[in-house]
Amino acid sequence: MSKWVTVWGNATSVADRRPENYAKNLTLRYPVKCAFGGNCVRLHFSNFCGTEPVTLSQVTVAPAISDREINLKDAALVTFGGSESVTIGAGEEVFSDEISFRVKPLGSVSVSIYLNDFTLMRSAVVITGPLSKGFYSVGNQTLSSVLPLEQTRTTQTYYFFTGLDILTDDNNRAVILYGDSITAQSWADYLALKCMDDPYNQTSIVRRAASGTRILREYSCLTYESYGLCGKNRFEREISTVSGADTVIIQQGINDIIHPVGTDINPFRPMSDLPTVEELEQGFNYYIQTAEKHNLKVFAGTLLPIFGWRTYAPFREDMKNAFNDWLRKKCGADGCIDFDKALRSNKNRAAFADKFDSGDHLHPSEEAYKVMAQLAFENITKLSF
Prior knowledge:
By secondary structure, this protein is α+β, with helices and mostly antiparallel strands. The protein is about 20% helix and about 30% strand. The protein contains 8 helices and 23 strands. It has a 6-stranded antiparallel sheet, with no helix packed on it. Helix 2 (about 185-195) packs across helix 8 and helix 5 runs parallel beside helix 6.
C-alpha cells in the first residue's frame, strides 16, 4: 500500500517589504533532504500572503548532487493541469500535478522555480538550520545542471514553495512543528536529522513556523507586517495542507508576551495588545481543538527563558511561568515537551543556562536547539501510532 506524505514543508508568511520587492528573470533553487523515498511526487506552492497574482514560469524537480548541482538526466518538468507554468492568485495556493519521479530514501532533490516576469516577492518565510539553504540565480536555470557561481547567491528566504509530498509506504508519516522564530531556526532541522539517523525511521518533519508570529495578534502596519499572521489566520490552513501527518508540536506564545511596549515607546505596539494568561490559554485551546478536528495528536512545548531580553520585565516573566504551568498540567494536549526546564539556568530559572543562550537572551544557541530536538524526538517516539 502507499499514501501521500509531506516529506518537507514550510509556513507561508509575509516577506519584509523592501524597495526591491519585485523580481524578474530569476531562478530559485531549493535543495530538500527526504526522510524516505517513493516513485511519485507533487509540489505545493502558496501565494497566500500575496496581494497580486504571481506566475511560476517553469518548475523542475531533480536529484541533487550537491547544493547548487543537480542530476539533469533524471530531472522532471513539474506541470499544473498539464501546463508547465501556473499563475497563483493573491491569497491562493496550488498543488502541482502528480509527477512520476523516483526519490531514494534519505536522498536529496532540488526544486527549481523560474520567474520570468515581474513577480511580487511577498509570500515567503525565512528559516535557518543545517538543512535550510536555498539559492537564487539570474536567468532561467531550471534545467542547468550547476547554478553559475558568478550569478548566484544563497538565501534563507523560501518564496512560494511550501511543501513536497511523496507517494510512499503506508507506514510513513509526518510530524508538524508549529511556531515562531524559535521553530523557524535550527531545532526543526536537528529533529529531522535525528529521525533520519534512526534506522527504523518512518517520520518526516514539516516546519510551519514564521518569525514574529503570535497566537492572538498580528500587525497591519508596513513596519511590522512581516511578523506574520495570528493563529486563527494561519493554523488550520497550515496543518491541513500537510499530507500524512498524525502529530503537531506547538511552541508559541512568547511574542504575545514580549511585543507590547506602549505607544509612548512604539506607536505600533500598544500595551492593549498584551493578552491575559487566560486569553493565551483560550488561543492555545483553539489550536488543540482544531488539531483534533484534523485527527492530529498535540504536543505542547513550554516557552523558553527571556531574562535579559530588551523588553524583559517581572510581569512578563510571571505571565510566561503561569502559561507554562498551564501547558504542563491543564491544557489537555496529548503531551508536554518541557523545553523551558531543559534549557533554563539552575541558578536563575528566568534565564538560559550559559551554553544555551544565543546571546540575545530570547533565542537559544545551536547547542540548545540540539537539546530541543532530542527532547522532541524522545516524545514523538513514545506513542505508538
